[in-house]
Amino acid sequence: MGGPNQSSISEFLLLGLSRQPQQQQLLFLLFLTMYLATVLGNLLIVLAISTDSRLHTPMYFFLSNLSFVDICFSSTTVPKVLANYMFGSQAISFSGCLTQMYFLFELTDMDNFLLAVMAYDRFVAICHPLHYTAKMTPQLCVLLVAVSWVVANLNALLHTLLMARLSFCADNVIPHFFCDVTPLLRLSCSDTYLNEMMILTEGALIMIAPFVCILASYLCIVCAVLRVPSTRGRWKAFSTCGSHLAVVSLFYGTIIAVYFNPVSSHSAEKDTAATVLYTVVTPMLNPCIYSLRNRDLKEALRKLIIRNTFSY
Q1: Distance between CA atoms of 132 and 122, rounded to whole angstroms?
Q2: Neighbours of 265 (CB within 10 A)
Q3: Which helix (H) or strand (E) holds 92?
Q4: What's the CA gap between 143 and 138, in Å, rounded?
Q5: What global pTM score does this model have?
Q6: 260-287, pLDDT tens digit by residue?
Q7: Which tens digit of pLDDT belongs to each residue from 191-229?
Q8: Is 14 helix (H, G, I), strand (E, B) or coil?
Q9: Is 75 exposed, middle or buried (0-12, 13-18, 19+ CB in 10 A)?
Q10: Is 96 exposed, middle or buried (0-12, 13-18, 19+ CB in 10 A)?
Q11: Helix (H, G, I), strand (E, B), or coil: what is residue 192?
């Protein structure tokens, strides 16, 4: 392939999760089921929030954005996996690989930022309830999401351009089910020092800053909740925090395990297992954890389903 990076290969081969035909059939059904559940669950959340005026609040605005991002996140990788299993092809073009990596970076960052914004929203609601409406204005909510998209796009563009400058000379087999940055760096025959340093510095800052914001927000929430005299009120608040923090731990734990270590310390099996969790499983679970335990949202979903069922 000609181009500024002078790579001699024009495509990569994605090995996927298994080479056994029977296991591939099982994985196809598993990924298809999880993808449909992800799209349907998150799409219902977006529709329920957009059609119910009672849910036009900052918390549900951020939740609808998170659901939209999760649909896009799964759609970046899973359809390609399903197509590979259906048609028996493992090939992905060089440009297609970089495009997939770009959207993965962008949407991972957006998940990261939205988790932090949602934590901040809960902090204001619980710790400063009298000032909540004045602080969490519609303009601020839109600004927070817009800035998140801009920063996520710039970060994704930076790492994609750094990857595009590398050369890939002989080996084009990626022991993964999508074009992830770590196996690509391992395949390169160029010096990857700059790429690794940017991941460990700028990339780490992009991930750690929102994570610190989440921890600080929930620390303040816990302190505020402990001052609540009602045991039932405390339990309800802690239960909500526990669910959110469980997903945060899963999301950040797998990303740190995969990306913020030297490339030489990675193994394909561990990386693949970790990335399945945050690219496929977490987006599928988010509607249940964040939404379906919420009484107002469940009522909005029930009305949405009944209205569309009887409209036909």
Answers
A1: 10
A2: 7
A3: strand 91-93
A4: 9
A5: 0.87
A6: 666 555 566 666 777 787 788 888 988 8
A7: 999 999 998 898 889 988 998 999 999 899 888 888 878
A8: strand
A9: middle
A10: middle
A11: coil
